[in-house]
Each structure stands twice: as structure tokens, then as C-alpha cells.
Amino acid sequence: MDKVKIPIRRETRKRLRPLCGEGESYDTAINRMINYIEFHPEYWDRKI
């Protein structure tokens, strides 16, 4: 598996940390969120 570095601001990491399970990496947590969003297509249709 290839890895790349994606810069994440400190504020974003602080918000992401509580969403991670115990011992879970940021990568796993982000993938879990992406999978959830892909499974719920209504998120893709919303206006920001």
C-alpha cells in the first residue's frame, strides 16, 4: 500500500481526534467517514 501525506491543519486534527475510535488512525477514521457519505447519496446532493 502506497502512502501519501496530506497536510491537515491543527484545528482539523483537533476536530477529527474525538471521531476516531480508541487506537484508530486518522486514515481509518477518514475512510469510515467517506464510506458513510458514499452510502448516503443525499450528502452529495446538498448545497453548501
Give the topology, please.
Blueprint: H1 10-16, H2 26-39, H3 42-45
Categorize the overall geometry: globular
**Counting H and I runs of at least 4 residues, what is the number of helices?**
3
Helix content: 40-55%
Structural class: mainly alpha
How do the SSEs run, as a string of H and E?
A: HHH
DSSP E strands, number: 0
Strand content: under 5%
Q: Output the radius of gyration.
A: 13 Å
Largest sheet geometry: none
Distance between the termini: 33 Å
Write down the overall mean pLDDT.
85
| Unreliable sequence segments | none
How would you portray this structure in words?
The chain is 52% helix and 0% strand. It is an all-alpha fold. The chain is globular, with a radius of gyration of 13 Å.
